[in-house]
Amino acid sequence: MPKQTHPDGDGIREQAIDLLFAALAKDERGETCGAVASQGDSGSHYSNVWTRDNVSPMLFFLRYDPAIVGLFLDALIRRQSRSRRTFGLIPIGFSPRYDVVDYGGEEAIGAVHSVDSTLWFIILLGLFVETTADIDWLRARRGAFEAALGLLTGPRFDPLPLMAAPESVTEIDRPAGLYGYPLQLQVLLCLALRWAARLLVRLDLDLELATWCRLEAEAIQSWINRWYWLDHQVVHERERLPGEEHGQDNPNPFNIDYSRIRPAVDRLPPDTGYLGGTLRTRHLDTRLWPFPNCLAATAGILSSPRAEALLSGISDHWEQLIGPMPVAICWPSLSGPDFEILMDGDVLARPGNYHNGAHWPHILWALVSACLANGRGELATDALAVAVHGLPPTWGEHYDHDGSLGMNARTRQTWSIAGYLVADEAVRFGIAEFWQARLSPPGGWLAESSSTASQVVREEGA
Ligand code: GLC
Question: Helix 364-373 vs helix 414-433: angle between axes, to the nearest 10 degrees?
């Protein structure tokens, strides 16, 4: 359980703000185009502007300098794919100086492709328009919005509302056993569809599509709650379900053998639970991945009792999940045959390292937002205090469980800096003030839209 008190973080906040502004890059047109991933590693692909690494920086700038967010979104739009196979795709990142654009992981290690970039793009677009109320700005970028949305609403190879994907489509961009229907992708898809519905209504565009997006987001939310959630009761109830059934009425659609899940749930204190990391035929990943879990708890994808159960579990496993640095990317890490098979024995990701259990400070903003949105302010403050003690002066990309900088980890990593700043803002000003960090369209989210359009969506979506 956490015990620390909140020190005065003002000096650190000033340093972080300076570093964040220093990370902003200009492109060949001389225009700000986003923040580079790290200032401690010039010359590698960490000097590129990565889309996902810019999410927390942009959450910060939304409050203080929204114009920077607009410039970043425009930089992405200029680089949005126009080729037939990937039309509308937002790149993983790009080089500000040479205009090298990374659509499929060519600039990273291994040909990883990113789905999260396009989803974050739609979410940031929604947050930006909500903040500036500049519908004309949005109207001028309608084509880019529709092209990105097309990747979410077009035909796919299966009938589920969930989106199937191979490995490495989010920030876990090396083998981690997260293929199938990875949780993070479903959470981001749900949020992107909520925002897309709102933007379509704001633009008085395709109201039928807006209704579809909203209903689809609700369907994803319900699948997440039904099939990813793990706690004693759920597993106990499902242990006797048949695992070899088929057909539409199958009460166990993925044919999961819940007796194999039991040991993972047995280590949970009563009244706690969490969402598993991925789902696929016969498999539910039982590692706890705090980032997507906290996003779900922040954005109301999880009901309040479940969000409370999640945060109680995090508090009960404080030593493993927070320890010397918030937040472990997953717990427990994989070892033995699981590590060899699911993570391909990745030398960078040995147990406790990198995507296999290292502590990644960028997750702090999501954890703090989840705590504040669900009445656990004391946990938020304690987690922030750990970061204040542990982060400067390295602002590392990830840390080992003893608090030392992780193997191959970069320093002055932008999303570690911004993750801290957004968390600090939320604690200082309260989640309601800093509502952007809630990530979802604000309460009564169709009410302010143009009257007939919102009426149609409200009635059809009811
Ligand atoms: C690493 C991380 C990835 C991040 C990138 C840039 O490849 O795995 O999540 O976006 O570095 O910081």
Answer: 10
The residue range of the domain holding 256 is: 10-440
Assign residue 232 a region (left: φ > 0; alpha: ψ between -120 and 50; beta: otherwise). Answer: alpha
Q: Measured in angstroms, how far is the CA atom of residue 92 from the centroid of ligand 1? A: 10
Under the phi-then-psi rule, with left for phi > 0, alpha for psi from -120 to 50, and beta for the rest, what region is 105? Answer: left
pLDDT for res 456: 38
Report the atom number in ligand 1 closest to the C-alpha of 48. 6
What residues are paired with 25 via a beta bridge?
Answer: 34
Give me the residues paired with residue 422 across strands: none
Is 448 domain-assigned? no
Give the C-alpha separation, 227 to 276, whole Å. 9
Residue range 17-26, pLDDT digits in tens: 999 999 999 9
Nearest-atom number in ligand 1 for the CA of 410 is 12
pLDDT of 8 reads 53
> What b-and-e string marks burial along 226-244, b requiring 16 or more CB atoms within 10 Å of the CB?
ebbbbbbebbeebeeeeee
- The amino acid occupying position 241 is L
Pocket flag, ligand 1, residue 197 (CB < 6 Å): no
> Could you tell me if residue 111 is left (phi over 0), alpha (psi between -120 and 50 degrees) or otherwise beta?
beta
The pLDDT value recorded for residue 446 is 38
Q: Is residue 455 part of a domain?
A: no
Residue 1 inside a domain? The answer is: no
The ligand 1 atom at the shortest distance from the C-alpha of residue 109 is 7
pTM for the model:
0.93
CA-proximal residue: ligand 1, atom 4 (nearest)? 171
Residue 385: which CATH number?
1.50.10.10
In a domain, 457, yes or no: no
H or E stretch at 237: helix 232-238
Task: Quote the number of domains for the chain.
Answer: 1
Q: What is the CA radius of gyration of the chain?
A: 21
Distance (Å) from CA 115 to ligand 1 centroid: 14
CB 171 less than 6 A from any atom of ligand 1: yes
Instruction: Give yes or no for residue 382 CB within 6 A of ligand 1.
Output: no
How many Å lie between the centroid of ligand 1 and the Cα of residue 149? 24
Report d(CA 290, CA 296) in Å as an integer. Answer: 10
Mutate which of 39, 45, 50, 343 for ligand 1? The one with the most ligand atoms within 8 Å of its CB, which is 50
